[in-house]
Amino acid sequence: MPAEDKLQQASVEFQKLQADLSRVVEARQRLDAQFSENELVKKEFEQLTPENDVYKLIGPVLVKQDQAEAKSNVDTRLEFIKSEMFVPIS
What we know:
Elements: H1 3-46, E1 54-58, E2 61-65, H2 67-85
Helix pairs in contact: 1-2
């Protein structure tokens, strides 16, 4: 195989690796943003009293939600995001 063909093949492989890296970085940034957002929500929940109402935005509507359920949902999302952040890349 001539050197020029080897260089061309190496260049194509490098471009594929760059594209893969870009996708992984974008996915990680999305997960980081979601994690931070959910951490902020969790901190806000810690300041609630049992008398406080919690609402969830569903489309354009705010729907009242049970406080314990809302806290549980946030904890579940945080655990899911953590597990996604530390999945080994194959």
